[in-house]
Write a structure and sequence with these properties.
10 helices; 341 residues; single chain; four-stranded antiparallel sheet; 26% strand; elongated; Rossmann fold; alpha/beta; 13 strands
Length: 341
C-alpha cells in the first residue's frame, strides 16, 4: 500500500534550457522543456539523434547544469546545489546505466568488486559493503557470477551487473541511457523485465532513454522529445473488460499483460504551444504560419494563405541562415538568460 506522497511529483523540469557553445556557434540542446515524473514511476524517453534526450539525462543526473529554467529532484533544486553537494548527489542519490559496457564496469575487477567500488568511494567500509554487493548480485539473478570479470560475462549479464553497480548506494532515481542498444531482442526483454521488477519491488523511480519507440510496451509512460522540447506522450489504454492475458514468455521473463493499445498525445505546454509532427506539416504544406478556427468539438488548423503579406518569409530566411551556421544565432544564451531575469 502506497504512502501519501508516493504518487507525488518526484522530478520536475520547468522551462529547461541547455545551450552548448562551440567556437562562435551556440547550439540549443534543450529549448524550454517541461517534464514531470511521479515518485516510483517507470518512464521511457524517446527522440531522434540530437533531439536532446541524452542532454536531459545528463542534467537529471547532475553531470551538467542547465543554462536556464529549473530542475527539481526529490525536493532538491539541482541548480542551487554547490559543487560538493552535486558530487554527493551523483554518488548517492542517482544511479547511471550506460549503453557501453566500458562506461559501466572496470574490466580488471570482478563483478563483486565493481559493485563494491561506488560504496567504497562514498565512504562505506566493512562487512556491510560485501553483503550489499552479494545481495545485489542475487537481485539481478547472477549469484553464480560473483568472481567473474566483465570479459567473462555475456552482454546481458554485463548490463545486469551494471544495474547492480548503479543500485549500490541505494539511489532514489535510476537513469538508463540506451541500456539495450547493444543487445539482441531476447536479452533486451530480460533487461527490461529487470527494470520493471526493480520499479515494482523497490518503488524505484526509473527513466530510460531510447531511440526505439517500441519501448512503450516496456514502460508505464513514454514521452517524446523533439528539438529540445517535450513534443508528445504515449499512454497505454486498457479496455474496460479484461480479455484473456497473453502468456508470459518463459525465455525472456516478460510479464503477462492484458490486451491493450497505445495512444499518442501531442503535448500542449503552459504557454499554449504544441508541436505538430513533421510528417503532418509536410503532408499539409505547413510553413511557419497557420490558420486556426474552432470546429465541432475541437480546433481546426490549416495552412495560412497570403503568406507574402506577412513577415514569415523573412523569418524562414533567418532560420535557414541559423541552420547554415553563419553566426546569426550569436547571443542566444544571453537572450535566454535575460528573459529569465
Amino acid at each position: 500500500m502506497q504512502n501519501q506522497g508516493e504518487s507525488s511529483a518526484f522530478l520536475i523540469c520547468d522551462d529547461l534550457y541547455k545551450i552548448f557553445k562551440v567556437a562562435d556557434i551556440e547550439v540549443m540542446a534543450l529549448q524550454g522543456l517541461d517534464l514531470t515524473v511521479k515518485r516510483g514511476e517507470l518512464v521511457g524517453v524517446v527522440g531522434a539523434s540530437g533531439s536532446g534526450k541524452t542532454t536531459l539525462m545528463n542534467v537529471l543526473g547532475g553531470l551538467t547544469r542547465p543554462s536556464a529554467g529549473q530542475v527539481i529532484v526529490d525536493g532538491k533544486n539541482l541548480l542551487k546545489l554547490s559543487a560538493r553537494e552535486l558530487t554527493t548527489y551523483r554518488q548517492v542519490e542517482v544511479g547511471f546505466v550506460w549503453q557501453q559496457g566500458s562506461r559501466n564496469l572496470i574490466p580488471y575487477l570482478s563483478a563483486l568488486d565493481n559493485i563494491r567500488l561506488p560504496m567504497t568511494l562514498a565512504g562505506k567500509a566493512g562487512g556491510e559493503v560485501d553483503q550489499r554487493a552479494r545481495e545485489l548480485m542475487d537481485l539481478v539473478d547472477l549469484a553464480d557470477r560473483y568472481d567473474h570479470q566483465p570479459i567473462q560475462l555475456s552482454g546481458g549479464e554485463q548490463q545486469r551487473v551494471a544495474i547492480a553497480v548503479a543500485l549500490a548506494n541505494e539511489p532514489k532515481l535510476l537513469l538508463a541511457d540506451e541500456p539495450t542498444g547493444e543487445l539482441d531482442s531476447a536479452t533486451s526483454d530480460q533487461v527490461y523485465a529487470l527494470f520493471r521488477h526493480l520499479n515494482s519491488e523497490l518503488g524505484l523511480t526509473i527513466c530510460i532513454v531510447s531511440h526505439d519507440p517500441l519501448i512503450a510496451e516496456q514502460v508505464q509512460r513514454l514521452v517524446q522529445i523533439r528539438d529540445g522540447k517535450l513534443a508528445a506522450e504515449t499512454v497505454r489504454r486498457r479496455p474496460g473488460a479484461k480479455t484473456a492475458p497473453r502468456k508470459a514468455d518463459a525465455a525472456t521473463g516478460a510479464d503477462a499483460r492484458w490486451d491493450e493499445h497505445f495512444e499518442e498525445l501531442i503535448v500542449l505546454d503552459s504557454a499554449g504551444r504544441l508541436q505538430i509532427p513533421k510528417h503532418y506539416r509536410e503532408e499539409l504544406g505547413f510553413q511557419n504560419r497557420v490558420e486556426m478556427e474552432v470546429a465541432d468539438g475541437g480546433i481546426l488548423i490549416r495552412p495560412a494563405r497570403n503568406l507574402d503579406e506577412t513577415s514569415s518569409q523573412a523569418e524562414i530566411q533567418i532560420e535557414r541562415e541559423i541552420r547554415a551556421g553563419n553566426g546569426a544565432q550569436g547571443g542566444l544564451l544571453s537572450r535566454i538568460r535575460g528573459k529569465k531575469q
